[in-house]
User: What shape does this take?
Amino acid sequence: MTGSDPQGDVLRFETLARHWEAQPYLAELSITIASLDEGESRLTMPRNNVTVGGIRDSINGGVVASYAELAAEIALSTTLGPGEAIEGAIDVGLSYLTSALGETTLAVGRVLRKGGRICVCDVEVLDGVSGAINAKARVSYAITRPQRSS
Assistant: This one.
């Protein structure tokens, strides 16, 4: 979707970031969008009384899973063209590697491949200070595109 107008892309990404940050789920967990680029999202989430509740006083595993899925969906949203829409996640695979114990947890979502109807994204959930990978996810989405005229 990146065109030859870098300023237009910046404006588009700023508009997307505002849209996503206005969503109640992001507000409830204090998730912010650190940066957006074509096919990539970088999110931050602070450790707080809403997110903690997992093993060894870590961020809850369900929160980590939904955070990873969110990073993937936001990354995918940066690639949508006119008339395209995300139908929903059709497969989520998540591997927990280390407990998310940091004061800030990052999520980096990347679009690996966007096909005609399916898109596959990769996400790393990381400790915001040490950079240790807390979890790795692969998320597949169904997408709709405008019908081609004959």
In short: Helices lie at 6-21, 24-28, 61-77. The mean pLDDT is 91. Residues 68 and 146 are 28 Å apart (CA to CA).
